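To: structure desk
From: M.T.
Subject: fold request, one chain
Message: Could you run this one when you get a chance? Sequence is below, nothing fancy, just the single chain.
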Amino acid sequence: MKKHTIQALALALMAVLLLGSCDLINSFIASRTRNIAVIQIYNSNKEKTNRLLPNDTLFVEVQGLAANGFYKVECLDPVGEIITAMTAQADANGVISPSPLWYDIGFKKDPVTKKPVLPETQEELGVRAFNIHVVSLDETQNTLSMTDFKLPFYVVFDTSLARPQPIVMAGYQESGEFVLENSFEAGTDNTLGSHNQLWVKVANVDPATPVPQIPASSSARVYVVAYKGDAYEDGETIPGVVLYQDFTLAQLTAAGGVQITANDLVGNGSWSTIPTWARGKPFSVIVDFNNNGAYDIKKEGADDYFIDGIDGNMVAGFVVKGPKTTDYIPANIASGGIYHYDYATWQYEYDYRNQFKIEGLDTRYAWDWQFGGYGVKATWNPYINWGYGATTGANTASLYYGSYVDVYIIDSQARVGSGKYPEGGTITASDNWNWKKITLPVQYSCYNGCGQQTIWRADGDADGTNGGLVLGNYDVVVDVDRSGTFTKGDIIDDQPQHPNASFTPRNVSATLYGGFSVVSDYVTE
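Reply: Done. Structure tokens follow.
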């Protein structure tokens, strides 16, 4: 008996030593290695998936990277051509949080008209995989060999569900055919042809497939709403309604779509022609199929039965351009990221600021953009029409619609006649910014990116170290054609923050400042 007891104790002691050794070994390995990089894809409903619907927005998350490392993330078409791209910096945990990479996914360019065309069949989209490509960069954006990997994904009309999510599209009609569009004109402005009318079309809805069936004669309510900057949650009461109009399913799915002609709730004017009050404002379109005044993503208790559709979840569905300009495009871009809805004006205020405290803690903590944390956000739409026509995806060689721009923060430049931003002059980033430029994906005809993206992170203190904000006066430059030079059509923030202010440079005590200042404490302007 004594012998057996000693043996049992010996075995127990050996087990403890082995377990301890395993922990020591695992700790030793973990301290000298890092996780294999993992890419995760999300749709605009924040669902993890590698099967995305056309006209959705693709969000990308990357893990297992070097802490605070710099990376280029590209979206590639099936033959390897770049559709869109972005510059990203991993956080202290080696993570690039979910970031928008491709807007209006799945649309091709018509080889003749160069207009967007939605593929008609599952076979045309789903045969070959698209790819997310991640590579390492140094701080001057030269490619390194440390990280280079891909993840495939597919763009599909998903017919495996009891009811797939309807695809909602804003656009215009030409010769009886519907054409997808993100950027519209207002009033008598109509330089691009029918771009001062709003049409809506719905795809991916088969009246015979869902259970219960939806008769083609049944009606659904179309809402045009003020873009709010955040995701619409499942079951959320539809906020910021500008107007609504009822249509039958047969009308919504017709080849040419339906025109929005209802009177709005703002100025009580018809949208047969988009009213001039809408200039410079972004919107989303929601089709409420169960007519309950809420955005319902899925039927309660079901995983494969979608209900409502949206064009513009977490990004603007479309924007209405303002008056034309003849030079660079002056616009508010630098934002604190804390949006507010003004029920008196029926509009969202996008927190444009002239000043940012150096510690940045009163800005929005943006956990889900590639430069996460507190700091200066870029929030822009074509509030002023660049005046040079719609783009045709000039920044991509791919057959698919997609575009991207370069963003710089530069030291504020003193205005001397027209020489403040000299045509053809080199864009030189501020030495305080620690970046040459960053690349951001945008919607193909708007140059409007995600609702907000952190472009200069605050580190929470006032000493300007650790890559945080640095005291000074700055302009934000959106280099639309990615030429590296100031050219007509580039967007520049050197403007007052107030949305109704005249677009003249900021002037503080007769000293010209830039689009924003980083300050120790706020001062009256």
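Reply (cont.): The chain is about 5% helix and 30% strand. Let me know if you need anything else for the meeting.
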